[in-house]
Amino acid sequence: MLDQNIHEHSKNKILILGSNGQLGRDLSKNLSKLGEVTSLDRNGFDFENPESLDLIIKRLNPKFIVNAAAFTNVDGAESFEKSAYQINSLTVKKIAILAHENNAVLIHFSTDYVFDGLKEEPYLESDTPNPISVYGNSKLEGENYIAEICSKYLILRTSGVISKNADNFISKIINLSNDRDELNIVSDQESSLNFSGFISQAVLEMLAELKLNLNEENRWGIYHLSGQESGTWYEFAKFTQEISKKINLDSNFSKVDISPISSSQFIQKAKRPKYSFLSSVKLKDNFGIELPNWKNSIIKVMENNE
Ligand SMILES: NC(=O)c1ccc[n+]([C@@H]2O[C@H](COP(=O)([O-])OP(=O)(O)OC[C@H]3O[C@@H](n4cnc5c(N)ncnc54)[C@H](OP(=O)(O)O)[C@@H]3O)[C@@H](O)[C@H]2O)c1
Questions:
Q1: Cβ–ligand 1 contact at 72 (below 6 Å)
Q2: What 3-state class would DSSP assign to 176?
């Protein structure tokens, strides 16, 4: 039985692209429970020079290709449109073609920013996207290529990814507080925060179920992966401060005044949706998986839990 498991494990070759990102790092750790993982960061495969991918996939012959790489700087994408489209859309098209030709399952991540934010209630997978930024549009193009080209794929949309020791909302507000007495945080944009460890655990559980019967599988498509509650950036910041006081964080962040401001008072290059909370009901219905809420995500990042 053990031999059988070892044999199955080595047959499940998993290629992870973007392995140095928040999600990429957690997935590289977590998915090794499922199969033999090859993790490639920017040095192993550069999305701006995708020619080598053919050879990589032919040599490795992965059963799953997991794309965690992306041009994720939402404001930066407005200035570096060409790179954003190359990384989030054109190279994704190439990955989709190669996954399909090599009969590999493609797992790809996308974003709540494919929506315009006008809905005012949780977005479903069946809602029509209408991005309002270059980032959102480039991610939607990537999604569309996969849906057109692949037959076995999961597009996993999430929001506000946070993790330890990475560049994200939590690290930004803590760093900003170093030389300020007051932080003004936007209180009229509503979404959610999700710890990368929770997302990668959900992906592990999804793939573990899928691999039981890949050829008969009919649950392919788009899924929203988010915790059960929405919140504003202001609420996220206030709660993070509450935790920082509880754990006696050695930072000015515990003392800084946090004030709410409107999006119109906080000028950013890219437009953001006012409301982009993702309903994860389909994930629960099809896979029986629920992600913890944003408070738990913040606690995971602030406290040193693994
Ligand atoms: N971050 C969020 O708040 C958020 C919200 C919603 C959805 N998502 C989606 O979730 C997924 C993962 O996000 P994340 O938070 O883990 O992002 P992240 O931490 O910014 O990681 C993205 C990774 O992509 C890599 N990358 C960028 N350009 C590349 C290139 N030319 N070639 C190869 N690799 C390249 C980066 O490499 P380097 O480490 O070398 O820079 C980085 O490791 C993405 O699809 C993103 O769109 C993220």
A1: yes
A2: helix
Which CATH number is 216's domain given?
Answer: 3.40.50.720
| Residue recorded with tokens 């509880």 | 246
pLDDT in tens, 191-232: 999 999 999 999 999 999 998 888 899 999 999 999 999 999
In angstroms, rounded to a whole number, what is the distance separating the alpha carbons of residues 269 and 140? 19
As given in the structure block, the two tokens for residue 6 are: 């070892």
Residue 42 CB–ligand 1 contact under 6 Å: yes
**The two structure tokens encoding residue 46:** 């550069």
Element (H, E) at 65: strand 64-67
Where in the sequence is the domain holding 133, given as residue range(s)? 2-162+193-228+278-293
Q: Which residue, chain included where needed, has tokens 């998993």?
A: 14
Do residues 77 and 134 make contact, with C-beta atoms less than 8 angstroms apart? yes
- How far the first Cα of the chain sits from its last, in Å, is 30
Q: How many folded domains does the chain comprise?
A: 1
Ligand 1 contact via 158 beta carbon (within 6 Å) = yes
| d(CA 239, ligand 1 centre) in Å | 25
Decide if 236 is inside a domain.
no
Query: Which residues are part of the catalytic machinery?
Result: 135
**74-86, pLDDT tens digit by residue?**
999 999 999 999 9
Using an 8 Å Cβ cutoff, are 50 and 91 in contact? yes
